[in-house]
Design a protein that fits this description.
By secondary structure, the protein is an all-alpha fold. Helices cover about 80% and strands about 0% of the residues.
Length: about 100
């Protein structure tokens, strides 16, 4: 039960802002439609994995929430660049972040 609650809080505080940030950066960088489509698939798979990890590792979840809240970690940094669905998005966001 507590794992479900932690997963829900993590989704609210991390996964939601991650989706919003990625959408905002994708629009700002005018990413190609294919990358935007891949980003949705990436967020679906990665979001579920992040919530599962948070529900199983409360320390990691708390540290990640605090790190994102204080601006030490960008939510996009949580994406797994080795995931084929996320690779193009991760590299595009890194390029957009460096150009800003």
């Amino acid at each position: 039960m507590i794992s479900d609650f932690i997963g829900w809080i993590f989704a609210l505080l991390v996964v939601g802002p991650l989706q919003a940030e990625i959408q905002e950066q994708a629009e700002r960088a005018r990413l190609p439609v294919e990358i935007v489509r891949q980003s949705r698939a990436c967020l679906t798979s990665q979001g579920a994995q992040l919530i599962e990890r948070a529900a199983g590792d409360y320390g990691w979840a708390a540290a990640t929430v605090v790190s994102i809240a204080i601006g030490h970690t960008a939510p996009a940094e949580l994406l797994d660049g080795s995931d084929p669905q996320c690779a193009a998005l991760a590299s595009a966001l890194k390029g957009a972040g460096e150009g800003a």
